Amino acid sequence: MGDESDFRAHQARRRRILSFAAVFVPVLTVSLIYLFTRAPEYRSSARLEIVPGSIARPQNGDLSDDPSKAFLTEIQVLTSRPLVETATESLKESGGLPPDLGADPVDGLQQMLSTDSTAGTDVVELQAEGPARTFLPRLVNGVVDAYQARLEDTYKALAANADAGVSEELRLLDQKVAAKRAEVDAFRARYDIVSLERDENQVLSRVKGLGQELTQANDRVVAAEAKLQALRETGGGVARSKDDPTVADMERRASEMSNELKEYARKYTPQYMAMDPEVKSLRARLDDLEQQIQTERASSRGNALADAQTELASARAAALRLKEQSDEASQAARVFTDRFGEYKALQEDLTKLEDLRRSALERQAKLEAQERERAPRMTVLEAAALPQKPYRPLYLLDAGLSFVGSLVLGLLAVWFVEFFSPKERRDPAVIVQQGWAGLPLAHAAHAGAPPMLSGEHPLHLTGPGGAALPGPRILTDVETAAILHAANDDARLAITALFFGLAVEELIRLRWESIDLAENALQVDGEEPRRLPIERPLRRALDARRDAERAGPLLRGSGGGPLSASDLDNLVTYAAYDAALDRADEVTPQTLRHTYIVYLLRQGVRLSDISRIVGRIPRDDLVAYARYGAPETRLPLDRIDRVPPALRDFDPPPLVGEDGGGGASTGA
Question: 3-class SS at 546?
């Protein structure tokens, strides 16, 4: 087997080398020949500073609002066909053209030219590339000279056209302004329009004044009507003493007489006063004076009513007269308003013409004042010089890229060949324990296989009864398969159960009543109750015990009672010794459980979910187990493969009953 394996490996290496060489060598050779047979190309360039000036002006003479557009336009002009044609004629006269330009020399030269502007500046680099080393600087400098001549000619033509256009426009505007002004003056004089201000015109100001007077007259009419209505409602009103001096004098005299009677009343008795002639005379005069006061007041009320009626009539007559005058003035104002609107329209037309004339004058003044500033400028910052070394190709860089590309193609060719090559089939090894050959030979055949897990980080775990255990080793797939092959029915069932998440104490207490073969489920009671699915390897181990009583403990000791922890240790350790494992004394049930937990963690199972499979794990042990977890992913239980590869690929051999019976059992 070793010679055949070496021969196949040698054939594979030879196939890869031939595939790589068949692609790498031809591709590298052809690419290097192509690279080093290319003719060198040179580059010559000149740096120019271009200030477009009036080149960027429209034909009406306005300066451009966006100088960057004018600059970009000039860059395009540098390599335009008309300019290259002019430069070509000059080059033909000065020293001739290269012979390899083709039927259209102008197009060939145009293909050799390119420009590169510097952002934020008016500097542009004019470049020429080609194999003619000595011709390139002549071409660049010839294009620069042609562009300089074009700038001067274009500026002169545009400046003359712009000045002539502005002068003609100004002459026409002067004529139109004079004619419109004469028309406006004639219209204003014909209709007596003083000003554009409405209040300054006589007709409109008279209408405004009459309107104010009519409003005041109407207010007086309303006041007179209200006064007359009040006098009528009060019977002529109450005559006030201050308004009539006569009444005021009589009231004063009556008051004095009344006061005099009051003095008599304080000094004398009423009987005496009734007999005193002087008192009687005083009372008679007081009564007569009060009668006169009443008569005078009645006369005053009649006079006030008559005066109110007269005032109302006068106010109404004045308001009517003002109304008639206002109507006449309004009619005249309406006619004036129409004429005034026409006058304003004429005045606006005149204003627009004057604005146009003023703008033309400003443009003319600007053209005259800024003639020197608007002149185009082109400064040669660096003239084209004779190139000293090729611009391209870069032979060494291209050769390195060619080598890398050939290498990549060769590797792709090897992958392509290996992808379509028939793969050697390697059947999984099945270790069968024979009477004449022990497991060491089978184990040696798998010694080179990669381990399922490695135990580079041992843990400190606790066994039954709380006794400290050394950090268990992690079994490989080969070792696990060897133990399964070497174990008897009870040991194989115990090993399989440990690889499905049962702890040692849980396995010892497990009873047949907790196993539901119809539902393929196993109920685990204890500190961490859980229901585990019965996968195919465990089902085969259970079915292998057909002769067992399907009641009571799943595993029984020698006395028929439950299996003890030491008995379980012996079952596993004996199977390890029978499998001829190295350091078989280290293989215990804790070793199998530890191997299974690490297998789950390296798949990426979450620490919070692992107790749902293997039960309770002490916190310190769980923290130590965290080092085995896959750091790049954390997967839920439904994405975890609970069956280790050694159990999944295990095919149990025919078994013979321990009591000498002839019934053999096989996995379901």
Answer: coil
Sign of CA dihedral 485, 487, 492, 498: negative
What H or E segment, with its residue span, contains residue 7? helix 2-36
Question: Does residue 128 contact residue 30 with C-beta atoms inside 8 Å?
Answer: no
Q: Which residue has the tokens 């620490």?
A: 607
Q: Are residues 351 and 404 in the same domain?
A: no
Q: Which pLDDT tens digit goes with each residue over 49-96?
A: 887 665 444 444 444 446 677 778 888 888 888 888 888 888 887 777
pLDDT in tens, 300-354: 666 677 777 787 777 777 777 767 666 665 666 666 666 667 777 877 888 888 8
Q: Residue 71 domain-assigned?
A: no
Residues with Cβ within 8 Å of residue 590, at least 6 apart in sequence: 461, 463, 469, 472, 504
**Is the residue at 564 inside a domain?**
yes
Structure tokens, 608: 């919070």
Q: Mind listing the pLDDT tens digit for each residue in 254-305?
A: 888 888 888 888 888 888 878 888 888 888 888 888 887 777 777 666 667 7
Beta strands in 418-499 (DSSP E): 461-462, 468-469
Could you report the per-residue pLDDT of 359-368, keeping only the tens digit for each?
878 877 777 6
- Examine the domain organization and report whether 538 and 400 are in the same domain: no
Model confidence at 135: pLDDT above 50:
yes
Distance CA 462, CA 445 (A): 34
Averaged over 549-572, what is the pLDDT? Answer: 82
> Mind listing the pLDDT tens digit for each residue in 227-244?
767 767 775 554 555 556
Q: Which domain holds residue 565?
A: 439-665
d(CA 465, CA 571): 19
Amino acid at 357: R
Token representation of residue 16: 């890869």
Contact in structure between 284 and 278 (CB atoms under 8 Å): no
In this structure, the number of other CB atoms found within 10 A of the CB of residue 396 comes to 9
For residues 408 and 443, membership in a common domain is answered with no
The helix or strand, by DSSP H or E, that contains position 82, with its residue range, turns out to be helix 81-94
417-426: average pLDDT: 66
* Nearest-10 crossing angle of helices 589-603, 489-498: 40
Report the alpha-carbon angle 625-486-568, nearest 5. 55
DSSP H helical ranges for 370-394: none
**Phi and psi dihedrals of 635, rounded to 5?**
-110, 150
Q: Tell me the C-alpha distance between 581 and 482, whole Å.
A: 8
More confident residue, 530 or 120: 530
Confidence of residue 369 (pLDDT cuts 50, 70, 90): low
CATH number of the domain enclosing 215: 1.10.287
Q: Are residues 645 and 616 in the same domain?
A: yes
Cα atoms found within 13 Å of the Cα of residue 187, Cβ hemisphere only = 20
Each residue's pLDDT tens digit, 443-471: 333 333 333 443 333 444 444 444 444 45
What letters, b where the CB count within 10 A reaches 16 and e where it falls short, cover 337-360?
Answer: eebbeebeebbeebeebeebbeeb
Look at residue 635 and tell me if it is in a domain: yes
Does 152 map to a domain? no
Taking alpha carbons only, the member of 575, 553, 549, 572 closest to residue 562 is 553
Contacts of 11 (CB under 8 A, 6+ apart): none
Quick one: CA dihedral 262, 268, 269, 270, positive or negative?
negative
Bridge partner list, 115? 126
CA dihedral for 322, 328, 330, 332, sign (positive or negative) = negative
Q: What sections of 503-549 are H helices per DSSP?
A: 504-509, 536-543
Residues 552 and 661 in one domain: yes
For residue 163, the number of C-alpha atoms closer than 13 Å in the C-beta half-sphere is 12
Domains held by the chain: number:
3
The length of the chain, given as a count of residues: 668
- Lowest-confidence pick of 39-53, 100-114, 134-148, 454-468: 454-468
